Amino acid sequence: MAEAASTSSSGKVVIKNIGLLLSGDIDHPILDADTIVVRDGIIEAVGKEADCDTAEPDLLIDARRTCVAPGLIDSHVHPVFGDWTPRQGQLGWIDSNMHGGVTTMVSAGEVHLPGRPKDIVGLKALAITAQRAFDNFRPGGVKVLAGAPVIEQGMVEQDFKDLADAGVKLLGEIGLGSVKAGAEAGQMVAWARKYGIQSTIHTGGPSIPGSGLIDKDVVLEADADVIGHINGGHTSLPESHVCELCERSSRAIEIVHNGNEKVAIAAAQAALQLKCPHRVILGTDSPAGSGVQPLGMLRLIALLSSLGNLPAELVFCFATGNTARIRNLNCGLVEPGRAADFVFMDKAQHTAGRTLLESVQAGDIPGVGMVMIDGIVRCGRSRNTPPATEVPVVISH
């Protein structure tokens, strides 16, 4: 259900009887804890039930020994306005993603807006409007960080200051506009960084007619904060070039669902070999020509874990804590002071895996039993995932 940004408070929420608690922290992916206490949408305590203040909650949830993880963060989406995408003519795509465990989305540019303005005044106005609109309106409760202008030739430093002063914190994918040369992009990235705006660069072949190739040399020269869809969106650079980017750049390595799956696995494995797994973040790069994938994040996690032979608990960190730290978000990690954004999961019914993590490493996506955003339950058993073997239960309000 789409609705305005919530102004109600969760009060005190106690989640007990957690069977597996994924932290989102790649250095310590699994917590030795079975209870979470939330107050007014913020995690207050994490630990064993006997050590937590569980008295008199406004909401008590029995997790029924299922897995609780930070809500998934989709690092690469292309929203427009509301819960609608003109790219595929679909309504309700953000709410559907919430049913796939996504609690936060980061815009890589509102590029699909019909008649999108490309003049400098217009692109700034669109970015500010999109940032304001999604700040005020959260489809399904999902936090959509939007207002990511696609930079164009002719922009000057003052334009980036204007955007930052207005509350814009992101640049859309560099390369989707007229700025495609490495040196020109690098100057604008530096201006954006000076004013606290984070940048992402398109990597690989053209995504749609009208866009162009961004090769490894342009990516390195531009030095954007995030190497956007390093596995292509859709067409990838050669695998050797992708591995070179992982090695020569220190920036975030973004792997997406709507890209080259073979190169996705190679990039994740390269990051582990280079001992920098904290740089890997995940997104869907949707809506796109491939459509809308409400389970895109879970599918990507299962892909990397199963075919990439990566521990599932590690890959969940790519989609949560890694992104939160790189994107400076107050979610993505199960620790006091962070937003109480959680996805409750269990192994899908009749999976070959004996546990949730085993099932993901076998290539199956888990069943979502509940999603919570800011301590408020947004959905129970997911309408999109396979049915979870067990689901959490709300004991009392």
Report the sheet with the most strands, covering strand number, pairing sense and barrel closure.
6 strands, mixed
Low-pLDDT stretches are none
How many β strands by DSSP? Answer: 22
Q: Which structural class is indicated by helix and strand composition?
A: alpha/beta
Major sheet: arrangement of strands: 4-3-8-19-20-21
Taking all residues together, what is the mean pLDDT? 96
Cα distance, first to last residue?
21 Å
**Beta-strand fraction estimate:** 15-25%
Quaternary state reads: single chain
What gyration radius follows from the Cα positions, in whole Å?
20 Å
- What's the tally of helices? 11
Overall outline: globular
Helix content: 25-40%
Please explain how this structure is put together.
The chain starts with a strand and ends with a strand. Strand 5 (35-39) and strand 6 (42-47) form a beta hairpin. The chain has 11 helices and 22 strands. With 397 residues, the protein is of the alpha/beta class. It is globular, with a radius of gyration of 20 Å. It has helices at 93-98, 120-136, 157-165, 182-194, 216-222, 239-248, 261-273, 296-306, 312-318, 321-326, 356-361; strands spanning 2-4, 12-16, 20-22, 30-31, 35-39, 42-47, 59-62, 67-70, 72-77, 84-85, 90-91, 102-107, 137-139, 143-145, 200-201, 226-227, 252-256, 280-283, 342-346, 367-373, 376-379, 393-396. The strands form 6 sheets. Strands 4-3-8-19-20-21 form a 6-stranded mixed sheet, with helices on one face. A 5-stranded mixed sheet has the order 6-5-2-7-22, with no helix packed on it.
